[in-house]
Design brief:
Elements lengths: L1 E12 L2 E13 L4 E5 L6 H8 L7 E6 L2 E2 L5 H11 E5 L10 H11 L5 H13 L15 H13 L5 E5 L7 H18 L2 E5 L3 H4 L4 E6 L2 E7 L5 H9 L1
Parallel strand pairs: 3-8, 3-9, 6-7, 7-8
Antiparallel strand pairs: 1-2, 1-4, 4-5, 9-10
Keywords: ATP-binding, Hydrolase, Nucleotide-binding, Transport
GO molecular function: ATP binding; ATP hydrolysis activity; transmembrane transporter activity
EC number: 3.6.3.-
Length: 239
């Protein structure tokens, strides 16, 4: 599903150049739930932005479903993002004056695809994320956990190839975070949704099939949630 080859990313400020990613090689299978962890500044969010086509690498290649997104022109990447990728962010990024239903359906409006059949799908998603009865409630009147549920439903409304999540539980308390992570797990298991999640939270990472540990722009270690010692590995890594 995702193949990253010898990926590098540099940022320049005046004469100073900073290499954030240093030759990343990574494969993510279809239907896999992967968590990317690492200290601040390790490059994990930069990698997610590159996977989402929000930025382009300095060198290397990114293939998603056999399409090389870093070779695309900006307009092509925009269309690819809209049709093939779903995004969930820490700060929700909802339109505050629109209702739950309107926020979820917004990507369909943008593509001119709000048919009767798709309108039914919006209603099904509202129920799937536990917001039944809140269809007409404005986003700015929802709790943080409810807003993130709306954001997840909006990200899934176009049936994306890959769901990308950047610190999706960062603004939530533990109980609300667990609810959101359980939703990810539900769509992953029931729909075989491919999910790539950046997080700094050991608890959140434990929901994934595989955990990729970043340090200083390189992959330091890859561990499986099935590994009985994964908690120890994570604790040592984050120390």
């Amino acid at each position: 599903m995702i193949k990253v080859s010898d990926l590098t990313k540099e940022f320049s400020q005046g004469q100073e150049r900073t290499q954030v990613l240093k030759g990343i090689d990574l494969n993510i299978e279809e239907g896999e739930f992967v968590a990317i962890m690492g200290p601040s500044g390790s490059g994990k969010s930069t990698l997610l932005q590159l996977l989402g086509g929000l930025d382009v690498p300095t060198s290397g290649n990114i293939q998603i479903n056999n399409e090389c997104i870093n070779k695309m022109k900006e307009k092509e990447r925009t269309i690819f993002r809209r049709k093939k990728l779903g995004f969930v962010f820490q700060n929700y990024q909802l339109l505050p004056t629109l209702t739950v239903e309107e926020n979820i359906a917004f990507p369909l409006h943008a593509d001119g695809k709000l048919t009767n059949e798709n309108s039914k799908m919006v209603q099904e998603l509202i129920c799937s994320v536990g917001l039944k009865g809140l269809n007409q409630k404005r986003a700015n009147l929802l709790s943080g956990g409810q807003q993130q549920r709306v954001a997840i439903a909006r990200a899934l409304v176009n049936n994306p190839t890959v769901l990308l999540a950047d610190e999706p539980t960062g603004n939530l308390d533990r109980a609300k975070a667990e609810e959101i992570l359980s939703l990810f797990l539900k769509f992953h298991r029931e729909n075989k949704q491919t999910i790539v999640m950046v997080t700094h939270d050991i608890f959140a990472a434990g929901f994934a099939d595989r955990i990729i540990l970043f340090r200083d722009g390189v992959i330091d270690q890859v561990i499986s949630r099935k590994d009985s010692d994964y908690a120890k590995y994570l604790a040592n890594f984050m120390a």
